Structures are given as C-alpha cells and as structure tokens.
Amino acid sequence: MIIDTPEVQDINSFSRLEYLKEVYGMIWVLVPIFTPVLGITIGVLAIVWLEREISAGLQQRIGPEYAGPLGILQALADGTKLLFKENLLPSRGDTRLFSIGPSIAVISILLSYLIIPFGSNLVLSDLNIGVFLWIAISSIAPIGLLMSGYGSNNKYSFLGGLRAAAQSISYEIPLTLCVLSISLRAILEAQSKYGFWGWNLWRQPIGFIVFIISSLAECERLPFDLPEAEEELVAGYQTEYSGIKFGLFYVASYLNLLVSSLFVTVLYLGGWDLSIPYIFVPEFFEINKAGEVFGTTIGIFITLAKTYLFLFIPITTRWTLPRLRMDQLLNLGWKFLLPISLDIHDMFPMVTGFMNYGQQTVRAARYIGQSFMITLSHANRLPVTIQYPYEKLITSERFRGRIHFEFDKCIACEVCVRVCPIDLPVVDWKLETDIRKKQLLNYSIDFGICIFCGNCVEYCPTNCLSMTEEYELSTYDRHELNYNQISLGRLPMSLIDDYTIRTILNSPQITSE
After folding, report:
1. Which end of the chain offers a freer environment for a tag, N or C, measured as fewer CB atoms within 10 Å?
2. Residue 471 reports pLDDT greater than 80
3. pLDDT at residue 506 above 60?
4. Using CA atoms, how far apart are residues 227 and 221, in angstroms rounded to an integer?
C-alpha cells in the first residue's frame, strides 16, 4: 500500500502534536507542586532579610547592603555558599540517620502549608481537622532532630536532640488546647462576622499569649533555643553537620517560624479579612465586582502582610530576653502554660489559678516590658558605623586601657600584687644588703588575664602605674599579651595625635540631623 507524501506529513505532524500535549500535561502536573514550593522559598528568603534588617536596627548597625539592592540577595548568597561546601559525614556515626534527619525536619514542616488558607478561595487542602493535622505533622520534626543527634555519634548532638524532643512534647499540649476549633475555615468565618472586633485576639487575649509562647518554643527561637545552645552544646544537634545539610536545618527553622506566624494570623488576627469597624475591605476595594481572581490576590496580600508584621515580635524577642535554663523551660510549659490552657474557656477558674502566680507573673511581665522598651529605644537611634582601623571612636570613660609602668618610680613594695583580685602582677626583686632596700629586677602584667579593675593604679604609693587610653590589645599568640617592664614603659599614643579618632558627636550620621 502506497501512502502519499502529504498524508505522511499529516501523520507526523499529528504525532508531534500528541507528543507536545503529553509533555504539556506532564509540565502542568508539576506546576501546582513547584509553585507553592517557590512561593515558600521566597517567603523564607524574605524572613531572613527582614530579620537581619530588624536586628541591625535594634543593634544600631546598617545590616546587609551589598548583595543586591538593600541586601535582599544576601540569604540567597549564603544558601549558594552552603550548597557548594563539602558535605562531611561522621566516621563512627550512623550515616543513614545522619542523612535522613535534616530531610524529615524540612519535609514535615513543608506539609504544614497544605492546610493554611491564604485566601477565601485559596486553600490547598481544606480539611476539618486542619489544626490537629498541623500539630501532628509538626511533631514529626523533633524526631528528625533526634535522629540527627543520635546519628552524629556526638554527646553534644545527642543532648540537643533529646532537648528538642522534650521541648516539643512540653509545648505541643498548651498549643493544642489554645485552639478554639479544628476547622480553620470555620475559625475565619467566625472572626469575619464582626469585623475588626471579632478577631480572636480580643476574645482570647490570654490564649493568644499562650499560643505565641508555645509557638516560639516549637520553633526553638530565643529564649527557647536550648536544643542548639552554643555556650552549652556547641551547636546542639547540628554540631557535626556542614554544607547543604546544615542549610536544611537553617531552612527548617525559618519554615517553622513562617508557618507559626501564618497560623497566628489565621487563628487570632482574622486571616485574609482586614475589616476596620464599619468599613469592610472587600466593599472598599470593590472586590466582589472586580472578580474572584482579584479578591484572592487581595486576600493573599492581607494574610502575608499580617504575617510579616507579626514576625516583628519573635525577631525582637530574640534580642531582648536571655535564654532559659532547661528546668525553667519545662516548668513554664508544664506548671504554668498547661494549667492556663486547660482553663482557657472558663475564665473564673483560670483567674483563680492565676492568682497563685500573681506576684511572680506581674514582676516577670514588668521586667519583660521594660526589656522590650529598652530594645525598641535602640531602634530609634541612627546607626554609627566606624570603618576600623581607619576611623576609631573614643571609648566610654568606664573602660580602662593599657597600664603604663614607670620603672624608675617603682619601689617593689608589691602593693599592686596584694590588691589585685587575681594576683596578676609579677614583681621580681632582690634585697640590697648594704643599703637595706629592695631593687626591682623585673615587672610584668599579663593583659590576657587582666580584668582592668584599676586597683593597682589606685593603691600604688609612688604612682608608677597609670591607666592609658589605649584599648587595642590584640595578637595572634596570647602569650604576647604578657607585657614586661619594657613593654609597659612604652609611652602611650595621645588621642589628640591620632588623626583616625573621631567622637560620636562629630559623626556625620549624628550631625546630619
């Protein structure tokens, strides 16, 4: 059978068309999967940039400014650096648990985004058990941390994993009991009926506070970051990690922070509904007339705006409150938050039980409020950045610089040794028998140990010791900080002669006001 050439071309074009349709169908299947992942990744990068900017403002620094406009690409640059770093494995650890742990921590938190309603018509999985599903899924993350700590074959890592598991169990129960309902859509609809004053923030203020504290503990944010306390456990469960696996823990921390802020927005701040009293945003923007797509976009924007505004609280808390001890963390969860969350729907028993902690609670609230006021007061100050060593600042008067020693005035009385709280000065002398006086041979002070209390200068009877205005004592070998009489006798540099020094009052950031 002979087929004409035009028919063959038609058959080939039809087959190519069918092939393109199959490829298009496969790509279209992957689009709903990668779109939320891309959006969540961009949200995490925004959180990292926001935390660095807010932290820099609270600490009077400039913050990231070179990687992209306003430093927005700094987090992306850090992730790229971790991606190309060497991935090390512990020689005597369990490599399977060591490799699976970070993945479990990230995947369990990513699944929590499936049930979050970003808008009135945008919920990936509208389930009636949405809140309980989030709590159940988020409880898997500490298992990954425990596997990471155990697989590292490191005592610090294993203790960090155990702390993560204990902390998660202690604060999941108050977190669960704070929720009014299990359906997120029902919670949002109940809040939207009465506008701004219908938010659960006003109905359950104590529940809101308990939920914030429990969510901070679940996210392992300060003051609840005991699983990775650096002064106790080096880096906790992530001590042995490097490269992209270390980056996964970093990503999991911010993913958990973002999902917790989203749940606070949905449960207590009205979600996508931003209703001011008697003025409703859908009517103000004419969303109903503009169409469903525009309404969903506005809802997503309102939800994310509330979420990122709420993030200011955990970021500020990080630089305000000190880290708790492990016993204080467990007592707070089991003895304080749990009884309050059990009585959260019956105010009278809650208030009665709350009176038992009355004085301690009021005192703690006052101190925490004062701490936040001090932290926020620093945010109003302009950053003063000195380009060291080309520009220096005169240190405050309470700082004491290098000690200057005059060999000729010293009578080897050793008063400086007696008044020194750590017996630091070393005085070598010999007795001249003919004149019956001490002759000084060597005098040294180790500035690597000195606390600069100034007692030796204050009690010296001949004023052979004096404080100078030199504060730069740095070296590659700490033994070089042990100054003898020759080093101590070097004349200090005068502040007037040092052209690189400028005072804070002459700083251009201050004078620009």
Report:
1. N
2. no
3. no
4. 10
Q: What burial class does residue 341 get, using C-beta atoms within 10 Å of its C-beta: 0-12 exposed, 13-18 middle, 19+ buried? A: buried
Q: Which residues contact 161 (CB under 8 A, 6 or more apart)?
A: 142, 145, 146, 147, 148, 149, 150, 227, 236, 237
Q: What is the pTM of this model?
A: 0.67
Report strand pairing: 437-446 vs 426-432.
Answer: antiparallel
Closest by Cα among 165, 160, 152, 155 to 237: 160
Helix (H, G, I), strand (E, B) or coil at 430: strand
Cβ–Cβ < 8 Å for 500, 389 = yes
Q: How do 403-405 and 426-432 pair as beta strands?
A: unpaired
Q: Are 236 and 227 in contact (CB under 8 A)?
A: yes
Residue 393 phi, psi (nearest 5):
-110, 145
Which pLDDT value is given to residue 56? 85
Integer Cα distance of 329 and 335 in angstroms: 10
Give 338-385 as a 3 state SS string: HHHHHCCCCHHHHHHHHHHHHHHHHHHHHHHHHHHHHHHHHHCCCCCC
In tens, the pLDDT along 19-67 reads 677 777 777 777 777 777 788 888 888 888 888 888 888 887 778 888 8
What is the spatial distance between Cα 255 and Cα 290, in angstroms, rounded to a whole number? 33
Let me know how long the chain is.
Answer: 513
Instruction: Give the pairing type, strands 437-446 and 403-405.
Output: unpaired
Q: What CA–CA distance (Å, rounded) separates 195 from 309?
A: 19
**pLDDT higher than 50, residue 492:** yes
> DSSP 3-state assignment of 501?
strand
- The pair of structure tokens assigned to 25 is 């169908």
User: Is the model's pLDDT at 362 over the cut of 70?
Assistant: yes
At 151, which helix (H) or strand (E)? helix 141-151
Rounded (to 5) percent helix, strand, coil in the chain? 60, 5, 35
pLDDT reported for residue 513: 39
Specify the DSSP element, H or E, that contains 8.
helix 5-58
List of residues 6+ apart from 74 with CB closer than 8 A: 48, 49, 52, 64, 66, 67, 68
Give CA 324 to chain center in angstroms.
15
